[in-house]
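Chain A, query sequence.
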Amino acid sequence: MKHLKVGSLMTDDVVSAVPDTSFREVAKLLAEHDVSGVPVVDEDDHVVGVVSESDLLARRQLTARGLMTAPAVTVHAEERAADAARMMVRRGVERLPVVDEEERLVGIVTRRDLLCVFLRPDPEIRRRIREDVLAGALGLSADAVDVHVLDGVVTLEGRVRRQSQARTLAGLADRVDGVVAVVDRLSVDEDARRFASPAHSRHDSTW
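Chain A, predicted structure.
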């Protein structure tokens, strides 16, 4: 499945500081560039921390080294935007420095940048589930089950052959960009259940 990546949403013209940047200079950077935080990088452009507005207010230190929150929470450009958004919520941060394979700073992504992931139109979400999940990943027809989407909440209704297939379908649907939640109303084919039950009994009887 195709997913929106962090690299397509990040700002690559990043305002940053170094550990020796003074309190006053950090404050000036935030004000002049209208940002709420800056990554702190070493001489090799590796991210060593982040200084936010709250750090400036909470800590009485002379340089970025003492002001910054470390270690920094970072993300790679190839990671899914939805995963980055969940990481922000989980870690309680407003921005994520984006790093390359060598952990060097290449950009920054904010919560505002990632909001577009959850503003994907419902018809587009439905189409992606039908084409990418049902047909593409599971090899079923696009209308094998009913897919309803309202405000990003996906409801799956219909019958599938196996319980594992139902779990996979719900799991993959939940990973589609823009999906807020998945309501699983799938049922398993009764013939498949009856077929599985005797086999299970025969297996038990051998012990």
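The chain has two domains: 6-117, 120-194. Residues 6-117 form a domain with the CBS-domain fold (CATH 3.10.580.10).
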